[in-house]
Each structure stands twice: as structure tokens, then as C-alpha cells.
């Protein structure tokens, strides 16, 4: 049992088991599971995005961790090299004479990102890190609440922790006890958050701001941003979102549904590199609010170098930039976005949905009886770009997968996150990964790795 020539064998060292997936039958699925590898190759042959894979340098045969860090593309590397060349050739003149000028990186990249989030260019800017952007936007909008408005912030108990750290910090700085003003929507099943529970919590607590992820980092649940925003606004509550796990793989319409603010990173599905500059969105109706973290890069650009000691914020989303744009952490995003726009976010989403559906179908057919279950919503309308595979030995299976050149990640207590990113993952890759997991479980190869209680 082998994969393509450019992938590792999945045979056991002693000759292995052939699971014969090509003959597996599950007629209830949309995908033709009975056709096995032949079907996967047919999907790849007809994939309109197939050629984009050749634009990426993949460090391993099966790179399924693009929801943590996307790989480098030729376009991203070229735009980074261009910035290095500009530094070499122009020195400080690069701030004004490079193409585009470094001075305007945040705004120019905001223009490029705006279509992906469904916003006007003035509402989007690149700058800071995701956590810094949460700090400044939550702080800004807590300050913007009226004296008689509820001061609480509504989050959920499955959030990525940095969101809570930042919000707690901003509340404390305003003399607000997080134990009293940070309200959690609790999950019913430990995997997902029900929209109706978010809405009920708006009524159950004194809430001035609701701040939710677009996609849960562990399970991959895609939230209903429109319904949450509409319900919040009906109650006089501001609605903000963390788009870290959806930007670049799920289309958004932030302005169209009147979201108040949003943040995101650029190193996952946008493939802009480790530590890439983050981005933010502020609806134009909030322009003029005082940024909670004022910094000189958020100053009005026309008068920034007058170096006045009084802060004059930009009259658009640029006001929420803080420090000088990190040129080498921003430059790759120009090239990365070229590929995203060339592919088209709608086409990316269409393939993403199909790849994750195919993965779920294969898991149901070939891994369910091996103790693997799906921890991600099966309805594509409620699913982001990755699938959570649950197994009691998830951590050790993840380690074994890496030694088979399958890059996934583990999230406690029992989740293997598999992200078949549409620009560089093939259908046959998904097929192979499921075969490899089956082999690891059948051969108990994970037993070669330390159990959790053995780790020192």
C-alpha cells in the first residue's frame, strides 16, 4: 500500500497491512468512497485550483497544518526578497520610494484584504499582532460604552486563551473585575457553541460587547456571524469577532452584516509566514473613536512627521495601528494575497468544503471502527477549514504521523487537527493520510511514543 511517488510509503516495516481502501463501500456518502484512490485522482485531475500547489514549497509530503502555519509560496518569498532588495538598494529611502512605499504598507495591505472580509478599504488595515489588536479594540469599545451601558464582555469557554487574557487585562485596567464583567457562554458538548446559547447569554448578563471567534480553533466550528451580530445590535450590544481560523479560507461580509470590529492573523490560511503582521477591521461608523493603545503609526499620515506631542488619529481604521510596521513581517503578505486573489476566495471555500467533506467521509468509512470520531460539525455551513479527529491516543498518533511526514497538530485532550488547505492539498493527499492513520492504529505504532503520564 503506497501513496504517490513523492510521498512516503505507508507500509509497515514488516511488510505491513494493505487496508484495501479501494474496495471499501459506503454508499451513503456524497463522495465515491468505493472508487478509492482512483476517485481521489479523478478529483485532483479536475480540480481548477490544482496548479496552485506548484507555487508552494511543502516541507513534508503531507502538510495538513496550514491552520497553524501556512507554507511559503514563490510569490510570498518574492515579495519578501523585494523588500530585502529595497533595503539594500535604497536604505531609508525605502520608506517613501519603494514600490509600494513601506510607509503605506498597512493601508495598501488593508486594501488587498478588504475583499476577503467584505469591507471597504478604509475599514481594514494591517498592523500589530492579533493579541495587540484584541487589546486595542476591546479597550477602545469598552471605553466607548456609555456610563449607563452594561460594561460586560461576552466570550465563550472554548475560545483560544489569548482572547481571554487580553480582555481580562483591558477590564482590569478600567477597574472592572473580570470575574464580574467577563461572561462565558458554556459549551453543551465540549466541542461547539450553540448560537441560541450566545443569544440567551446576551439577555442573561449585563453585556456591552460580544466577542466570538469566527471558527473555534479546536473543533473547527464555523459561527453564524450574521445572526450573532443582528441579535447583539437588537440589544444595543457591539459585535466583534476573531477571524484567525477563517480569514483566507472562508469568505466574509463584515460590512454587509454590520459587524463592529474584527481581528485576524496572516500566517495561517493567508500563508504570509511565521510572525506575519496581523490585521483588523473597524466599521466606518466607529471612525473617530479614540484608540485604547495610541501609537505614532496610528497618527494621521499627512501630519505624522510633524512630530506633534498631541495624538491626531487617522480618520479610518489606520488609527488602530500602534508601532512602526514590521516591513519583513508584512512584505510576504503582498505575494501571498496575490495567490489568494488569483484563486478566488469563493473557489477556495468551495474546494475547502469538499476536501473536508471527503476527509469526513473517509474517516467514517475507514477510521470509525478504529476508534476515531469526528469532533467537527458535519454541516459545511457550520464548518471552517479543518477537521478535528478525536481518539484517546490523539497525542501519540500525532507524533507518529509526523514521523510519516504527515504534519498535523494535537490539541488536548484528544484532538488531531487536520487542515486540508485548498491551495496546496490534493484529494489523494487526504486519502493517503487516512490510510496512514489506519496503519498507525492497526500496527499500534503510537506505542513507541511516551504516554502522557510518562512525560517528564
Q: Brief description of this entry?
A:
The protein is of the alpha/beta class and 456 residues long.
Fourth-tier CATH superfamily name of the largest domain: Type I PLP-dependent aspartate aminotransferase-like (Major domain)
What is the 3D form? globular
Structural class, from helix and strand content? alpha/beta
Secondary structure: helix percent: 25-40%
- Biggest beta-sheet profile: 7 strands, mixed
Summed up, the helix count is 13
Q: Based on the structure given, which CATH architecture of the largest domain is correct?
A: 3-Layer(aba) Sandwich
Q: What is the chain-wise order of helices and strands? A: HEEEHHHEHEHHEHEHEEEHHEEHEEEH
Name of the level-1 CATH class of the largest domain: Alpha Beta
Rounded mean pLDDT is: 92
* SS elements, strand count: 15
Low-confidence stretches: 1-29
Identify the strand order in the major beta sheet.
Answer: 4-10-9-8-7-5-6
Which fold name corresponds to the CATH topology of the largest domain? Aspartate Aminotransferase, domain 2
Beta-sheet strand percentage? Answer: 5-15%
- Domain module tally: 2
Distance between the ends: 36 Å
Keywords: Hydrolase, Pyridine nucleotide biosynthesis, Pyridoxal phosphate
Family: Belongs to the kynureninase family.
Biased composition (Basic and acidic residues): 14-43
Subunit structure: Homodimer.
Amino acid at each position: 500500500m503506497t501513496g504517490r511517488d513523492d510521498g512516503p510509503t505507508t507500509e509497515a516495516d514488516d511488510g505491513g497491512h494493505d487496508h484495501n481502501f479501494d474496495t471499501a463501500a459506503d454508499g451513503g456518502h456524497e463522495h465515491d468512497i468505493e472508487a478509492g484512490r482512483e476517485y481521489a485522482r479523478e478529483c485532483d485531475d479536475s480540480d481548477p485550483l490544482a496548479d496552485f500547489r506548484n507555487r508552494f514549497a511543502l516541507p513534508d509530503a503531507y502538510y495538513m497544518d496550514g491552520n497553524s502555519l501556512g507554507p511559503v509560496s514563490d510569490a510570498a518569498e518574492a515579495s519578501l526578497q523585494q523588500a530585502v532588495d529595497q533595503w539594500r538598494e535604497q536604505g531609508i529611502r525605502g520608506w517613501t520610494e519603494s514600490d509600494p512605499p513601506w510607509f503605506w504598507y498597512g493601508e495598501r495591505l488593508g486594501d488587498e484584504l478588504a475583499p476577503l472580509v467584505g469591507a471597504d478599504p478604509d475599514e481594514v488595515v494591517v498592523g500589530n499582532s492579533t493579541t495587540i489588536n484584541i487589546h486595542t479594540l476591546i479597550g477602545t469599545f469598552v471605553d466607548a460604552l456609555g456610563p449607563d451601558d452594561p460594561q460586560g464582555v461576552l466570550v465563550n469557554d472554548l475560545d483560544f486563551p489569548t482572547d481571554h487574557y487580553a480582555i481580562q487585562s483591558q477590564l482590569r485596567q478600567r477597574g472592572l473585575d473580570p470575574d464580574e464583567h467577563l461572561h462565558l457562554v458554556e459549551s453543551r458538548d465540549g466541542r461547539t457553541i450553540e448560537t441560541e446559547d450566545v443569544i440567551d447569554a446576551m439577555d442573561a448578563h449585563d453585556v456591552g460587547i460580544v466577542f466570538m471567534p469566527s471558527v473555534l480553533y479546536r473543533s473547527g466550528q464555523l459561527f453564524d456571524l450574521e445572526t450573532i451580530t443582528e441579535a447583539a445590535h437588537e440589544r444595543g450590544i457591539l459585535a466583534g469577532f476573531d477571524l484567525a481560523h477563517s480569514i483566507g479560507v472562508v469568505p466574509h461580509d463584515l460590512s454587509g452584516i454590520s459587524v463592529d470590529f474584527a481581528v485576524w492573523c496572516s500566517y495561517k490560511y493567508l500563508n504570509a509566514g511565521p510572525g506575519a503582521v496581523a490585521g483588523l477591521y473597524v466599521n466606518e461608523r466607529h471612525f473617530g473613536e479614540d484608540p485604547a493603545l495610541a501609537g505614532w503609526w496610528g497618527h494621521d499620515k499627512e501630519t505624522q512627521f510633524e512630530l506633534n506631542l498631541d495624538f491626531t488619529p487617522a480618520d479610518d481604521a489606520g488609527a488602530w495601528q500602534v508601532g512602526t510596521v514590521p516591513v519583513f513581517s508584512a512584505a510576504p503578505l503582498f505575494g501571498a494575497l496575490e495567490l489568494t486573489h488569483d484563486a478566488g476566495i469563493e473557489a477556495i471555500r468551495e474546494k475547502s468544503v469538499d476536501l473536508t467533506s471527503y476527509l469526513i467521509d473517509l474517516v467514517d468509512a475507514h477510521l470509525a471502527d478504529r476508534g476515531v470520531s469526528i469532533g467537527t460539525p458535519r454541516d459545511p455551513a457550520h464548518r471552517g477549514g479543518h477537521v478535528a479527529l478525536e481518539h484517546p491516543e490523539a497525542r501519540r498518533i500525532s507524533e507518529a504521523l509526523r514521523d510519516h511526514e504527515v504534519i498535523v497538530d494535537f490539541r488536548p485532550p484528544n484532538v488531531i487537527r487536520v487542515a486540508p488547505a485548498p491551495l496546496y492539498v490534493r484529494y489523494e493527499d487526504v486519502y493517503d493520510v487516512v490510510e496512514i492513520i489506519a496503519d498507525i492504529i492497526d500496527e499500534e505504532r503510537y506505542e513507541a511514543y511516551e504516554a502522557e503520564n510518562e512525560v517528564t
